[in-house]
Structures are given as C-alpha cells and as structure tokens.
C-alpha cells in the first residue's frame, strides 16, 4: 500500500497483550523484560476480560508481544501454546491478531499463520558488531537468526512487519546495509508490509548508557530509506518517540506514512506514553495530512489468508469503510 503520493497517514487502532515479560535475552537497552520465572503469564481468562472491555472501543488489532522463552527450555511448548491460544481467542472475539514474539521455528510460524492476519520481527541491525556491545547476552539477536525469519515468512506467505532500532551503537553504513537486506528479501517474496524506524529512547530500567537517537536525524534516515525500499513498503515511525511535533511532521514529509499501533501503553517503551488519536489528528491536520485507520493487514495481502481470516478482515474493512 503505497501512500507516497497522497496526503494520508495511517495508524492501527490497537491493543497490546503481553503473554509474559520474562525473556532469556538480556539486551542492555531493554525496558521490557523480567528474569525467566519471575513474571506471571497472562491467563486466557484475564485476556478474555480485556477483550470484552475492548469490544466497543473500535480496536481492531490485538498485538501479541512477548518476552522470549529459550527454544530449548522445557517451558517453550507451553509458552507457544499460550501465544497460539491468545491469538485464537482474539479471533473468536472479533479482533485481528498480529504476533511479534521473537524468532520462531518454521513449524511455530506455520501454525501461528492460521490464527494471525500478519506477523512481525524487528531486525534491529544486521551488523555482528553489536554482539560485542549491547547483545553479548542475547542469543536470539544473532543477525542470521533474525534474517532467517524474513526468509521463512516469505516462504510461508506471511504478511510481515520488520524494522530497525536506531542509536544502539551501529554506524550509518549499518542502516543502509540492513535496509538493503530488507529490500532484497521483499524483492524475492513480496511479503513485507512495513518497515519501522525506531529511535533509541532511554528508559528507566535499561543498563545501556547512551543518549537518545537525535530526532533531527530521522527525516534524513527516512528519506534515504524511502530511496532504498520499494514503493509498496510503508515506512512507520512511533510518534511517542518523536516528542517534538515539528520533527514528527518533518518525518512524515520525508516519507514516513504510518504511525503504528495507537494503544493505551507502549509496552516496549513504557516511559513514553502514546499520543492518542485526536492529538495526532490535530498535529497532522495543521499541515494538511489526514489521519486514517488501517488494519494490521494491508489490502494487497488479503488473498494470502485462509477463508475464515479473510472474511473477518473484510468485515473490518467494511466497518472502517476502507
């Protein structure tokens, strides 16, 4: 869905569900994780109560966002089943699930495809240098592991979202290398909906001692990304991490056309509250941009879904008049 020639900026009316905050990775910039075994898992009963509260709030997307249980852990199967069951419950209650829970096996991805309209995983950066700095205790941040997810998503025909984390010790050349890798994967499979450009924004829990990514650099990065990425791939920026509205508008002018899921809380960056729909609408309309809702599945991928998922997506398209 290319919006480069229109005055439209999209967002997803979303709510984030966290099966567990526990994670075996220890990324030094993380403000999300807890130690394995130290965080209770979300029950299906608790999730159902949340979904019932959301029924009349025009929320379409349920983002399933989880810490990672080690692939060889005795708890991995139960963790995966909880994620699958949460997706199935969200679907049964009329929502559209999008899952982002770290690297998965081929079999896990194949199974989740049946209960998700789309999925995602941030590449962050493909440079192996970060394994010596922010990722020495983060086994699933191996570049080849994350790149493989893009390949498998393409082979499985899963509409996918990925992206870069900016300002964690990488170089400018690393940005272009990672964006080029995304573009090349998409050229082969035509499966990537969006690329998120997420600026590092320090939180109160992380151990990584570095300043925030300079928002004044973002428009330049976005403009270059727009040159590297194909036109049918949307660039997304998180508006709560670009706190100056003038720079947010500059990012949009440079080629960003999506603001991601707008929900009550940013689970990954809890120190940065989301701007809500009306506030964003006011900012954008001051410069002639229209803010419109979208689904977690872009229209060009509708035919990739099974009949049941496709019908549910179509009902949401009619509801939002998309």
Q: In words, what does this structure look like?
A:
- The protein is of the alpha/beta class.
- The protein has helices spanning 44-54, 76-92, 106-112, 143-155, 172-189, 218-228, 245-254, 277-285, 307-320, and strands at 8-17, 61-65, 96-100, 118-120, 160-166, 192-199, 234-236, 258-262, 290-293.
- Helix 2 (76-92) links the parallel strand 2 (61-65) and strand 3 (96-100).
- Helix 5 (172-189) packs parallel to helix 6 (218-228).
- It is globular.
- 43% of the residues are buried.
Short structural summary:
The protein is of the alpha/beta class and 322 residues long.
Tally of individual helices: 9
End-to-end span in angstroms?
Answer: 12 Å
Radius of gyration: 18 Å
Main beta sheet? 9 strands, parallel
| Count of distinct strands | 9
Q: What structural class do the secondary elements suggest?
A: alpha/beta
- Give, in order, the helices and strands: EHEHEHEHEHEHEHEHEH
What percentage of amino acids are in beta strands? 15-25%
**How much helix, percentage-wise, in residues?**
25-40%
What's the SSE blueprint?
Layout: E1 8-17, H1 44-54, E2 61-65, H2 76-92, E3 96-100, H3 106-112, E4 118-120, H4 143-155, E5 160-166, H5 172-189, E6 192-199, H6 218-228, E7 234-236, H7 245-254, E8 258-262, H8 277-285, E9 290-293, H9 307-320
Parallel strand pairs: 1-2, 1-8, 1-9, 2-3, 3-4, 4-5, 5-6, 6-7
Helix pairs in contact: 1-2, 4-5, 5-6, 6-7
